[in-house]
Amino acid sequence: MSEQSSMHFYLNSAKERIDEMDAALASFEVKATEAKAESMVKADQIIADLKRRRDEFQAQLKTQAEAGEAAWARAKPELEKHWTGFEAQMKTYFESAGKQIEQQQATFKDIAAAQTKAWREAAGQFREAAGKAVAARSVDVDAALKQMKSDASEAEARLEKLKQAGSESWSVLSAALAESRKAFDQANHAAWNALKGPGSKS
Q: Looking at the predicted structure, is the pLDDT value of residue 199 above 70?
């Protein structure tokens, strides 16, 4: 169970990033069709680069998913490097798009929705796995599931509050997404560790 639990953590984390990438790309593509001809060329180039980065991330994810937990641990820094590059390119897109508030808000809403969906899916996977867990650990598993749901609700509420604000800069929105992403990783990791049993902190 321990190898499988760790794999769930890594897969959930990586899938959440891919869902964010897809949400950002979808948002950018919609807005790019509305752009003027000269800015459309630049937007198309940035979108193509973002797609390339997402595809590289997905390819590496697939390779690591087949390789096992040890490979995941070694590959995590490289995946984070791809993610950081994607985020930097998104920032470039916003800067080249003239810092259009409506584009930033639309992209934030799409990414926040992807994060919220990832939280729900991870909690559902954990609930399913927890149902199969040994009864002796049910108290730990129930507590971890309750905590994950609570953390998910808090993250969703914070993101919803920012969605309603509508006038925050991309750096503020990006920081909120990063905070939610970090909380997701921590909750996801803690939940799967609860399934592994006492003494499992990796």
A: no
